[in-house]
Amino acid sequence: MKKIIASFGWLMLLLPLISVAGNKSFLNSINGGFAETETRQVSNFKGVSSGGSFDVFITMGGQESLKLEGDKEDLAKIETVVEDGILKVRFQKKMNSSWFNTHEKVRVYITAKQLDEVSLSGSGNIKVDGTIKSTDFKTKLSGSGNISLAANASTFNAAISGSGGITVSGETKGSSISISGSGDFNGKGLHSQTTDIKISGSGNAKVNVDETLNAAVSGSGNIYYSGKAQVANVKKSGSGSISKM
Length: 245
Hints:
The protein has 245 residues and is mainly beta. It has two domains: 22-114, 3 Solenoid (Pectate Lyase C-like), CATH 2.160.20; 129-245, Pectate Lyase C-like (3 Solenoid), CATH 2.160.20. Helices cover 13% and strands 61% of the residues. It has helices at residues 2-21, 24-30, 72-75, and strands at 36-40, 47-51, 55-60, 65-70, 78-83, 86-91, 107-112, 117-122, 125-143, 146-162, 165-181, 184-201, 204-219, 222-226, 230-237, 241-244. β5 and β6 form a beta hairpin. The radius of gyration is 23 Å and the shape is globular. It starts with a helix and ends with a strand. Residues 44-229 form the Putative auto-transporter adhesin head GIN domain. It comes from Hufsiella arboris. Pfam families: DUF2807. This is DUF2807 domain-containing protein.
């Protein structure tokens, strides 16, 4: 009788684990990672746009490539297409992005020859390994995600809307930064000769400028600058600030 009671006790302890084991994320974790790896053909792109909760890893290299890691069912619902020279990674139009919130995050690995644009919308992340070389480089972030990259460009443009963040290093002759919302731009490692920066909302920006800084702040946002810059034009309304680091 004691053995029966003991066995029943163990069964009751195991029931929650059996229930959890039915969860896809749990199974992936105990299997040591993602369930599927899928390689897709891709070519002739000079920009990357991610629309979703994907973790995107871009490597600057010679041979263009694209690989996705995740649950097989999830990968089947992700579309990758080159449009107007931009490699777009996104949910199929018929899918509701909230469906992916309860699933294991998909990882996307991209090798690019040349990049002139990197954009992210949603809660995902983009990280670029290697230095981007471009005449005119643009990066755009909307949502709560993060972008991290290094770029040497004649002109550099960054736009943030939402609560996400962009971290940049490298060199540029002229940069233009725009923040609306609570997002942050960290350009301490981006050496720029001239910078035009505009913040509306509660976002913050850190920039490194050697010659001329034009700054405009409306709301509670803050601009912090380093370098030898002369602050030529300042427009400020609200409780925000413009100060030297």
